Amino acid sequence: MKLKLINGGAAGSEIDVSDATFGREFNEPLVHQVLIAYAAAGRAGTKAQKTRAEVRGGGRKPWRQKGTGSARAGSIRSPLWIGGGRAFAARPRSFEQKVNRKMYRGAIRSMLSELARQQRLLATGSLELEAPKTRMLVGRLAELGLDSVLILTEAYDEKLQLAARNLADVDVRTVANLDPVSLARYPKVLATVAALRLLEERLA
Questions:
Q1: Domains: count for the chain
Q2: Which of 53, 57, 136, 168 is most buried as measured by Cβ atoms within 10 A of its Cβ?
Q3: Nearby residues of 194 by Cβ (< 8 Å), 6 or more positions away
Q4: Rounded CA gap, 191 and 125, in Å?
């Protein structure tokens, strides 16, 4: 499989990448399952409410059973009353869904392959900046014809991270921190050649 090289080479040049990583068929059900599981794992699940047994007060019957003309009531903390407990109180819980390593890696391979087929996965020789300046990164991306993009590097680049952190439509990730939601979020993915080789090694 070949990917377009838009920097660090002649115009229209391409690089060869592994079909085992970037040439797979798109498995939509698997990708959907992994995306949902990844988003669910990010939920805090800390919501908690009190039942009538946990709300303070309400131990005494508010009025006698008969003769008042009012409805029967045993506690002012009934779920029917303002200030009462909840009938079906929420409890802290985990939203985690099981996704094993084989499924996760398969989904990442499937997404990378689909991005490559749609020519949304682009390669670059390097994307080093002289200084951690946002305007430098904006200018470099403008030269490449990119605005909303996920930049994928093989290792942490402090200058690149600092330059991109104030751009709402640009994100910088290392191969180790790549996740399926980021791959699905941006219309283009710009990866360094070293990052692509590292992906081939890890997803082989």
A1: 2
A2: 136
A3: 153, 154
A4: 9
Alpha-carbon gap, residue 46 to 136, rounded angstroms: 42
85 and 176 assigned to the same domain? no
On whether the CB atoms of residues 38 and 31 are closer than 8 A, the answer is: no
The 10s digit of each residue's pLDDT in 27-72 is: 999 999 999 999 999 999 999 999 999 999 999 999 999 999 999 9
Same domain, 171 and 83: no
Intervals of the chain under pLDDT 50:
9-10
pTM: 0.81
Cα 149 from Cα 12, distance rounded (Å) = 20
The per-residue DSSP string of 124-135 comes to ES----SSS-HH
